[in-house]
C-alpha cells in the first residue's frame, strides 16, 4: 500500500520477478480500460516483467464495486496459493484493501426507483443541494465524501431514503467475514513529503506530454460515457474535463490536477497512519533499500515463504 507516486509498482515487480509473486491490482481507476495515461498504469515494459491481475477488466461505463473487487481478489488469492505463488496486492485504493482484509459492511441493495429520483434531483438542482441534504441526514458520511463525488453522495442518500438509517450507521454493523488468511501489510511512507509532492507534479506534467488531454477528449467523445461515471470522476480526469469544456485553461487544469492528486495522497497517508499492524517503509531512501526492507519483513513474518517460492 502507499500514496500515489510512491513507488508501489516498482516494488511489486521486483517481488514478482524474484519470488514468483502473483500481482493483484488494487486501484479503482486502473480496473478500467481506456484510462491509461491519467490512471498511471504500469507501462508495457513493466507489465511484461510483472503482469497485474484485475487491470483493464471493465469498460469505463461498466460499474465495478468494492464488493466486486473483494470477490475477484479472493478468487485470485486462492488461485495463487494453488499455484504455489505468493499473492501480492498492490495499489492505493485503501477502501478496497480494508474491505478485503477486514470485511465488507452488509449494505442494502440499490433501489432503481430511488436512484432515478435522486438522479432527477441532481439534474434539476445540482450536486451541492444533494450534498447539503446528505450533511443534514448523515454528517459523518458527508464529511468523508469528496465535494465532487456524485456517486457516493447519491448512494448514501439512497440508503438513508430506503432504510431510514444513515450509511454511517449501517457501516457500524458487524461486517461480512474478513479474509481468512494471515496478511502482511507493507505501507510505503515517503518522507519528506515535499519530495513526493514534487514527484506528483513531475508525473502530471509527463502525463500531459504523453497525451493525457487527447486521452480524456477521446473518452468524452464516446456516447456511452458521461461526466458522472466513477471513471470520469477520477483524480486528473475530472480536472482535465474542465479544460475540455472550456471552463479552465490547460495551465489551470494542470494545477487543479496536481492539487487534487496531492489531496488524494494526503487521504492515503491518513488511511496508512491508522492501519492495524502496518509496517512502514520509506521508498525515498532508494529502490534497493525499499526492496531489501520488504524482503526482510516478509522473511521475519513467515520465513519459509520466500525460500519456498523463490525462482532460481
Describe this structure in words.
The chain has 312 residues and is mostly helical. It has 2 domains: 8-105 and 184-309, Rossmann fold (3-Layer(aba) Sandwich); 112-170, Histone, subunit A. The protein is 55% helix and 6% strand. It has helices at 8-19, 44-49, 66-82, 94-102, 112-125, 127-137, 139-144, 150-163, 167-170, 193-210, 212-220, 237-244, 250-273, 287-301, 304-309; strands at residues 21-25, 52-53, 86-90, 185-188, 278-281. The strands form 2 sheets. Strands 2-1-3 form a 3-stranded parallel beta sheet, with helices on both faces. A two-stranded parallel ribbon has the order 4-5. Helix 5 packs across helix 6 and helix 11 (212-220) crosses helix 12. The longest helix is centred in the last third of the chain and has 24 residues, at 250-273. The mean pLDDT is 92.
Main CATH class of the largest domain: Alpha Beta
Structural class: mainly alpha
CATH topology of the largest domain: Rossmann fold
Biggest β-sheet: count, sense, barrel?
3 strands, parallel
Distance between the termini: 27 Å
Architecture (CATH level 2) name of the largest domain: 3-Layer(aba) Sandwich
Can you identify the CATH superfamily of the largest domain? Answer: P-loop containing nucleotide triphosphate hydrolases
**H and E order:** HEHEHEHHHHHHEHHHHEHH
- Side by side, the strands of the main sheet go 2-1-3
Beta content:
5-15%
Shape: globular
What's the helical proportion of residues?
55-70%
